[in-house]
Amino acid sequence: MKGRQVIKTNCEWTRDELLEFMEQNWDKENYCDFELRKPTAGSLAEYITLPATEHYQIIAYPNKNKVILSMCETPAGAKLNLAASIPTNGKVFASAAKYGVVKNLSKERKGPLEDILQIYTAHMKEILGDKVL
Q1: Closest Cα partner for 84 from 102, 62, 107?
Q2: Which of 39, 45, 23 is nearest to 77 (CA)?
Q3: Buried b (16+ CB within 10 A) or exposed e, 85-98
Q4: Contact between residue 36 and residue 19 where contact means Cβ atoms under 8 Å apart
Q5: In terms of residue numbers, what domain contains 59?
């Protein structure tokens, strides 16, 4: 499982340039709409966000001559992970319940989320066309 895909391009990008490029070229009907926002309340910056699963989303952002697509928690996923990290003082039932949450989130990341990331990455490469190295 790779939670991050890096697409090398023959030009440098700013976030606004990537956003404009996606506005003009992204197939919103077949690959969902996106928006520019902070993915979670604790995020320091705004990213281009694409929907994925209940607990995770995909963020897209530039880094010089690269376009990066990466897995990121949704606000609901962040709350769930925070709740699962609270110590239980060794209580077996609470620990087992938390393990179940973590196991389900792991299955979500390794299954449908990874598939969605690959689909978005393939479409991004397709619309970038001859800009891909």
Answers
A1: 102
A2: 39
A3: eeeeeeeeeeeeeb
A4: yes
A5: 4-131
- The rounded distance, in Å, linking the Cα atoms of 104 and 24 is 37
- Do residues 15 and 61 touch, judged by C-beta distance below 8 A? yes
Residues of the chain where predicted confidence (pLDDT) is lower than 70: 1, 77-103
Give the model confidence (pLDDT) of 78-104 as tens digits. 666 655 555 555 544 444 455 555 567
- The pTM for the full model equals 0.82
Helices and strands (DSSP H and E) totals, the chain:
5, 5
Domains in the chain, number: 1
Residue 52, number of CB atoms within 10 A of its CB:
25
Q: What is the CA radius of gyration of the chain?
A: 17
Give the three-state DSSP class for 106. Answer: helix
Q: What is the DSSP letter of 131?
A: G
Decide: 7 and 66 in contact? Cβ < 8 Å: yes
Q: How far apart are CA 50 and CA 56, in angstroms?
A: 10
Two tokens at 23?
A: 């506005």
Which of 70, 60, 52, 58 is CA-nearest to residue 21? 60
